[in-house]
From TrEMBL, chain A:
<dbReference type="GO" id="GO:0004386">
    <property type="term" value="F:helicase activity"/>
</dbReference>
<dbReference type="InterPro" id="IPR057342">
    <property type="entry name" value="DEXDc_RapA"/>
</dbReference>
<dbReference type="InterPro" id="IPR014001">
    <property type="entry name" value="Helicase_ATP-bd"/>
</dbReference>
<protein>
    <submittedName>
        <fullName>ATP-dependent helicase</fullName>
    </submittedName>
</protein>
<keyword id="KW-0547">Nucleotide-binding</keyword>
<feature type="domain" description="Helicase C-terminal">
    <location>
        <begin position="363"/>
        <end position="512"/>
    </location>
</feature>
<dbReference type="InterPro" id="IPR000330">
    <property type="entry name" value="SNF2_N"/>
</dbReference>
<dbReference type="InterPro" id="IPR049730">
    <property type="entry name" value="SNF2/RAD54-like_C"/>
</dbReference>
<dbReference type="InterPro" id="IPR027417">
    <property type="entry name" value="P-loop_NTPase"/>
</dbReference>
From TrEMBL, chain B:
<protein>
    <recommendedName>
        <fullName>YqhG family protein</fullName>
    </recommendedName>
</protein>
<dbReference type="InterPro" id="IPR024562">
    <property type="entry name" value="YqhG"/>
</dbReference>
<dbReference type="Pfam" id="PF11079">
    <property type="entry name" value="YqhG"/>
</dbReference>
Length: 562, 265
């Protein structure tokens, strides 16, 4: 078949005019420069990316280049990037943005990310891609800067909202886009109203096989492509899961979504070595734990929920300080504590005071000395965190604390202190997110979180791209306590530690059995006997195992991009 | 283009435009723009309009460009330039605007006492873009002898080896062309169209196939709908824009050259 060939005639008219008028003529120097520019800006091949040639500070990984290539060549810049956590979605998005900028197709871009990541995104765009992305702080930025990074919550509020709606964006990047699955939300409506040519949605959670999610996300990328909402739902029934059976939908999803799993990346991931370290309570510690455990058996003096008993049990496995804080708060919360209540609390506090040493902390000290390298200790409790810092200092070990509540600047500072000066970083749960510590390869889980996703996030801080050594994880679990039960169930029976984020992600969402915490609370809090506890635990394990096999059988439907 | 190349490029651009480079250190430069370049780059037509009306003293701006933020001093305020930045695109574009048309003479040593004749050439530098949902470009430089109709490739590279000057040298005269520049351009256009249409266009067929597949998918989602409405038409038009294959020949720059017989071998 022939192709239409167009010859641009605008140049010649002016040329003839200049010949008639005897000029003006350009300078030879500039003329030569123009041709050099031309040679730099031609794109010599249909396939392939230009951006990597211009990025001396960056060596993208093969799968990242592949994603960028796919999006530019086959998806026309409208895509859902759904790689597993830690594979570098930011790099992929940056490559695509750069590529379009080099080709002159994108001038104005808006990057919407969670508030805590605004600085990090703009820094990465600047340092790795030479893209002058500006973190939005003043309202004139929207109009005057070409590449702006902001949080969606800021952007959707007045007075920003109105200014943003007036901009014509060439590219919009949205991080954590799984929050846009529901089209009834303000955020969805906001993103839908933005004027855009290209759009990238980044998410670590894959699209579930749910029709409405697909409709909503695809509609953001390609409005109108799926027909009208009513007609679409009539055809596919809103909550049905018939995606796998429908060739057309599957085709469509493959056209707009790319998902890499760790195992497909071909990268040699360093190994995980998991070691469970059983801890023996000292006599005093055991007394405290038993006293706390027997609280609800001793009459109804304690009106508060099961939860505090569970909490106290777990705290008793962590440190006496943690227990003490909770007890004190319980007492404070009661407006007029009954005599009995006060007495009981006081007797527990007495037990706390009787505890002379922390067996876990001593064990941790042993390990830190043995490892003789950087170590991260995770604990769920701030009281434990403070105690550990004091305890390590007594033994001549430098440590820095880390909490989710720290401001960005302080987080970066603590990270740097840890990297350059201290041997140990002591982090609480909330501190786990949004910080990368690849230079360290040892984690001590001083106490264990019940939500496996949180545990994975902990490990994800060090076991990610850029980690050069094998990763060692030491789980401290006190014998004959809830802790040991949890460890047995979640971490040994289902081999959680050997798994990687994506798998677990898939399993838990597919099961839809709600919050794991609730199940554990039910098992440990409401069981009236050891036997009942064991049966319930077996049930939970069986469910998870079942979901796993289900997943293996269904393969990578709707998520792979072949 | 690496950052250092960009830096060198900017230097040459401003120098060729007679701008004084006030400060030129590692990683950044500050330039005093001329009136012409201020109008070209700074996008403030109202200021210039106002100034011309009131007859005030023109005050062209200074521009600081940072080509490598990692080595530039921290307190330097300016625009960060990277390959792909809108400012650099603008300067690229401006380079082409300012040097779209040229007329040059070969600067040769005439034999003593004698006179030398120079022959007219039409030189054109072109970008041929093959586009569908993907794109590729080819740069071509073609020279046409305006007397005998000889056509040569890589014309620009050949010119780089010749001494050229904008003023006609002494003891030199030019021969008038037989072929008018206008029909010369038409000859080049026809030659290119012919060669391109003889090429293998599998890429276009493949694009049409992809287009067809996407159309079928779109049809599928609308097949039960009576009134397909505006969004259907929009989406269909968007697919056409995205996939329809065509070839676009555009001219980067070009001009008239008067050369000796020996210049183009």
């Amino acid at each position: 078949m022939t192709v239409h060939i167009e010859f641009d005639s605008s140049w010649q008219n002016e040329f003839i005019q200049r010949i008639d008028n005897d000029g003006p003529w350009g300078s030879w120097e500039l003329y030569k420069l123009a041709i050099e520019v031309e040679k730099h800006t031609v794109i010599p091949e249909f396939a392939g990316l230009q951006a990597p040639l211009h990025l001396p500070n960056l060596t993208p990984l093969p799968h990242q280049l592949e994603v960028a290539r796919q999006v530019v060549e086959n998806m026309n810049g409208k895509a859902i990037l759904a790689d597993e956590v830690g594979l570098g979605k930011t790099i992929e998005a940056g490559l695509i943005l750069k590529e379009y900028m080099i080709r002159g197709l994108v001038k104005k871009a808006l990057i919407l990310v969670p508030a805590s990541l605004v600085t990090q995104w703009s820094m990465e765009m600047n340092s790795k891609f030479f893209i002058p992305a500006v973190a939005q702080r003043k309202s004139y930025v929207w109009e005057q800067c070409d590449v702006v990074v902001s949080s969606i919550d800021t952007a959707k509020r007045e007075p920003h909202r109105e200014i943003i709606f007036q901009q014509d964006y060439d590219l919009i990047i949205i991080d954590e886009a799984h929050k846009l699955k529901n089209n009834k939300t303000k955020n969805y409506e906001f993103v839908q109203s933005l004027r855009k040519k290209f759009c990238l949605l980044l998410t670590a959670t894959p699209i579930q096989n749910r029709i409405s999610e697909i409709f909503n996300l695809v509609s953001l990328l390609k409005p109108g492509h799926l027909g009208t909402e009513t007609a679409f739902y009539e055809k596919y029934r809103k909550d049905s899961r018939s995606l796998d059976d429908d060739e057309h939908l599957k085709q469509l999803v493959n056209k707009v979504m790319i998902r890499n799993r760790r195992q497909d990346t071909g990268i040699e991931w360093t190994k995980r070595h998991v070691e469970t370290i059983p801890i023996e309570f000292s006599e005093d510690e055991k007394n405290l734990y038993d006293a706390v455990s027997n609280m609800h058996r001793e009459g109804d003096w304690i009106s508060s929920s099961q939860f505090s008993v569970m909490t106290l049990q777990r705290e008793a496995c962590s440190s006496r300080e943690a227990v003490f804080y909770t007890l004190r708060n319980m007492l404070k919360k009661q407006e007029e504590p009954s005599m009995q209540f006060e007495e009981k609390i006081q007797s527990l506090i007495g037990k706390v005071e009787a505890v002379q040493r922390n067996s876990k902390a001593e064990k941790a000290l042993d390990y830190i000395n043995k490892i003789n390298d950087k170590v991260i200790i995770f604990t769920e409790y701030r009281a434990t965190q403070m105690y550990l810092q004091w305890f390590l200092k007594q033994h001549g070990i430098t440590s820095v604390p880390f909490r989710g509540g720290f401001k960005r600047g302080k987080k970066d500072w603590m990270r740097e202190l840890f990297q350059n000066h201290a041997q140990v970083l002591i982090a609480t749960e909330a501190g786990g997110e949004g910080i990368n510590l690849q230079f360290c390869s040892h984690i001590i889980n001083f106490d264990l979180p019940w939500n496996p996703m949180r545990l994975e996030q902990r490990i994800g801080r060090i076991h990610r791209l850029g980690q050069k050594s094998d990763v060692h994880i030491y789980n401290f679990a006190t014998k004959d306590t809830v802790e040991e039960h949890v460890l047995k169930l979640l971490y040994e029976k289902i081999h959680l530690f050997e798994k990687v984020v994506g798998d677990l992600d898939d399993i838990l969402t597919k099961l839809q059995f709600g919050n794991i915490d609730d199940h554990l609370l039910d098992i440990f809090g409401k069981s009236s006997s050891e036997g009942e506890m064991r049966i319930k635990m077996d049930n939970l394990t069986a469910m998870i195992e079942f979901a796993e096999t289900m997943k293996e059988e269904s393969g990578h439907a709707a998520t792979g991009n072949s | 283009m690496q950052q250092q190349e960009i830096h060198n490029f900017l230097e040459r651009y401003f120098q060729s435009n007679q701008c004084e480079i006030i400060d030129n250190k590692q990683g950044y430069m500050t330039v005093q723009l001329t009136i012409e370049l201020d109008k070209e780059l700074m996008n403030r037509p109202f200021y210039w309009h106002y100034l011309e009306k009131t007859g005030g003293i023109p005050n062209p701006m200074q521009l600081t460009l940072i080509t490598d933020p990692t080595i530039a001093p921290e307190d330097i305020k300016g625009e960060v330039i990277h390959f792909g930045s809108p400012r650099l695109h603008q300067i690229f574009q401006s380079t082409k605007n300012l040097a779209g048309y040229i007329r040059l003479y070969e600067d040769h040593k005439a034999a003593p006492g004698g006179q030398m004749s120079l022959r007219p050439w039409l030189g054109m530098n072109l970008r041929i873009s093959y586009q569908c949902d993907r794109k590729k470009d080819i740069f071509q430089s073609i020279g046409l002898h305006l007397i005998n109709g000889q056509m040569v490739d890589h014309f620009h590279d050949r010119l780089l080896k010749v001494n050229l000057t904008p003023k006609i040298p002494d003891y030199t005269f030019t021969l008038s062309p037989f072929i008018k520049p206008q029909s010369g351009i038409a000859r080049v256009a026809n030659y290119l169209k012919e060669t391109i249409s003889m090429e293998n266009h599998d890429w276009a067929d493949e694009a049409r196939e992809r287009w067809q597949k996407d159309l079928q998918l779109l049809e599928h989602f609308y097949e039960d709908t009576e009134d397909k409405g505006e969004s259907y038409d929009n989406e269909k038009a968007a697919l056409k824009d995205q996939y329809e294959p065509n070839v676009c020949i555009s001219i980067v720059n070009g001009g008239l050259y008067y050369l000796t017989d020996q210049a183009i071998g």
